[in-house]
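Action item from last week, closing it out:
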Amino acid sequence: MGDEHDKLLPIANVGRIMKQILPPNAKISKEAKETIQECASEFVSFVTSEASDKCHKENRKTVNGDDVCWALSSLGFDTYGEVIMKYLHKYREFERERAAQNKGPIIEDDKDEDSMGRVFEFRVMEKGESTLVRRSW
């Protein structure tokens, strides 16, 4: 049973993300958290496996962000792949600028739109900040 739980995303993190998206007075049952934990963990494993297979076929040992974006699109999650690719490019741009300045972290806000016209807000965050990406539909 211990091995099974090692393959799941931390339930505290799953619960925190669920709380951030729900109204402040909403309650979340333990069963709901565990169900989302299992589904999210399976989704991450599914996408990672596809990306890993691609790397294996290309005789590479390291899965990178581009591989994950490719896997999302390959598996039919084109919208997610598109949004993650935009985030990845913005993150890399931020890291290049930070390295060039050789200074402490800079937080930048940016908004982008996917092919369906939905607006996503991207922000490079400090360690310990919430990882929730706010979105407006």
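Closing note: The helical segments are 2-6, 11-21, 30-57, 65-74, 78-101.
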